[in-house]
Write a structure and sequence with these properties.
2 copies of one chain form a homodimer. Chain A has about 210 residues and is of the alpha+beta class. Helices cover about 30% and strands about 15% of the residues of chain A. The first copy, chain A, has one domain: NADH Oxidase, CATH 3.40.109. Chain A has a 4-stranded antiparallel sheet with strand order 1-2-4-3, sandwiched between helices. In chain A, helix 2 packs antiparallel against helix 5. The longest helix of chain A has 18 residues. Chain A is globular. In chain A, about 50% of the residues are buried. At the A-B interface, helix 1, helix 2, strand 1, helix 5 and strand 5 of A face helix 1, helix 2, strand 1, helix 5 and strand 5 of B. Strand 5 of chain A pairs parallel with strand 1 of chain B. Chains A, B: Its EC number is 1.-.-.-. Chains A, B: It is an enzyme of class 1 (oxidoreductase).
Amino acid sequence: MDDRHEPQPSSRDASTDHDVHELIRRRWSPLAFSSQPVADRDLRSVLEAARWGPSCFNEQPWRYIVARREQEAEFARMLSCLVEKNQRWAQAAPVLMLSVARLAFAANDRPNRHALHDVGLATAQLSLQAAALGLGVHQMAGFSPDRARELYAIPDSFEPVAAIALGYPGAPDQLPEDLRARDRGARIRHPQAEFVFAGTWDTPLS
Amino acid sequence: MDDRHEPQPSSRDASTDHDVHELIRRRWSPLAFSSQPVADRDLRSVLEAARWGPSCFNEQPWRYIVARREQEAEFARMLSCLVEKNQRWAQAAPVLMLSVARLAFAANDRPNRHALHDVGLATAQLSLQAAALGLGVHQMAGFSPDRARELYAIPDSFEPVAAIALGYPGAPDQLPEDLRARDRGARIRHPQAEFVFAGTWDTPLS
């Protein structure tokens, strides 16, 4: 068995109220990235996981634009799309990506209400494949879709969705001081009673 | 080890071009469901996986309304939200759900551009947890959001996103004849060169 796939219990594991698969328990969004590069085959595996996501009418509305640190100018270009607050930590990640959604169905050009939703489905698979390889993914809403559109000539029929940092989690002490606590802060979620309903709205499933 | 977690190679496994974790390879969207009920603890695990999804500002905009076959009237009510074409097969599933998105941030009521995207992230985790338990998830765009809103008193600030069938995959010969081929048809996806770009739009990552 490939030892990269072995579960590594970590203080970042989710404190679940019910059993979940270790891949889901282990996934989290690091702010601190190590300088270790991501191997080509691992980057392809992560994107392959996105490829096999489900989508409405199998439209596969997701696109990913990738910039690797090794290509310095390309990396700097993508980094420049992020808000300054995110640049501060994401500049250390070995890979940056942008997810992009095709807003209409290819077959008939009608609006796809599920375009962003289905990009979410694909990116979740990407993130869990990253977790399987010991990698971390941190998605950001804090970037400029307009700048991304201009820099990458993204057509009007597509919408830039999220910026994505990918790499091996690093030591929080490499982060600017004000970000360290955020990297290691408690992971919290609403209990199921607040979002799982039955019968009618706001009535918890019993 | 719980034998429900053992990989079961199947003809439905994705034919990937690059290695992916077996959970991602095994996930598919069955049309045929067995009558075997879903245990309470498994349903909770599946929803717990959604709970631990990432989201913009940790907003967790996802809500799920659940109807179990055992509660016949409730089940029929949710089934009535589906378009007839989907009712034909989804009526056999032991669990139906609706995913719903909160469209604005709770903190400041500003529009959340990533609301549906983040529901997708959560539902992908739900689907992979289902796969880990040998269950299948089939999401549907084919339902009436208006009817769902009315039946479940879904507030205007939320949007019904997708209907979800959950259960153990069943034998395709229990399906209406015209649906059998669809349940077992080839699983196809665009190659990475069509959705993974670098440098500029439509230029494949090399």
